[in-house]
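Posting for a labmate who doesn't have an account.
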Amino acid sequence: AAIPPGITNQPQDQLVNQAAAAVFSVAATGSGTLTYQWRFNETNLAGATASSYTRTNAQPADIGHYSVVVSNTAGSILSSNATLRLNVPAPTLDPSSPGLLRWQGLSNLTYTIQNRTNLALGDWQTLGDTSSPSGTLVFPLPDTNAPQNFFRVVYP
């Protein structure tokens, strides 16, 4: 009698730097030829039919759950979910001239640039938003009469 597939090593969670590759793999047993179908958030991934799957150039849209269905003539089994998480580098600010901020980041997340004049008091004031991976944002000048101005970039 044919032996249905069993999973001996489940796919493992992956934490990779943005734009790097994440590799998921599974080890399975069972009689005859085993077939594999990888899934992302419960949807089949086209062409992902090997015992391992590589997500190249990982981006925020690729964050989620990866699993695999292993099948043979005697049945099929679904692996547990392996979660892909990204290490997104923080932007670096360059306040090169009044009213202009430049930054470099590797992400297509939405960045919000904020300002305040006193770190101990008051709320942060939003100066502008952008979703560009790198660029320049021009914003209204904050209170130039304040003895100091603080800036921050907020992103998900």
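Reply:
Got it, the structure tokens are right above this. The mean pLDDT is 85.
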